[in-house]
Write a structure and sequence with these properties.
about 120 residues, Serine Threonine Protein Phosphatase 5, Tetratricopeptide repeat, 2 domains, about 0% strand
């Protein structure tokens, strides 16, 4: 194993995994303490998505939307997942909703790829 790969895999990777685990635990604690607050659900969704746990992440993003209908961020994450899954109709639905809520970044991202429009 080369020096660069060792550093990336053994040092940085381990620290990153530990940090993500700690952050996940913190968000779960916040959800337990404040089950009616939407932001911890969205942040936990991001952490789960980062770990490749897409289906779990979707559930937390959906819960975040349910708790705070005025939040654009979970719609952005759901729309990006839909776009990656080639579910473009749903991705656009989330993009339009996020834009209504003040964030046009997903719409702009989708417009950059003609096959998605």
């Amino acid at each position: 194993m080369g020096k660069k790969r060792f550093w990336r895999d053994e040092v940085i990777g381990e620290v990153l995994a530990r940090d993500v685990y700690d952050a996940e635990r913190e968000e779960r604690t916040l959800i337990e303490a404040y089950p009616g607050e939407a932001r911890p659900y969205c942040r936990l969704g991001v952490l789960l998505q980062f770990q490749g746990r897409k289906d779990e992440a979707i559930g937390y993003f959906q819960k975040s939307v349910e708790l705070d209908a005025a939040a654009a961020e979970p719609h952005i994450h759901l729309g990006r997942i839909d776009a990656m899954e080639e579910n473009y109709e749903s991705a656009w639905k989330h993009a339009r909703q996020a834009e209504k809520l003040g964030d046009s970044s997903l719409r702009e991202q989708l417009e950059r790829y003609p096959k998605l429009t």
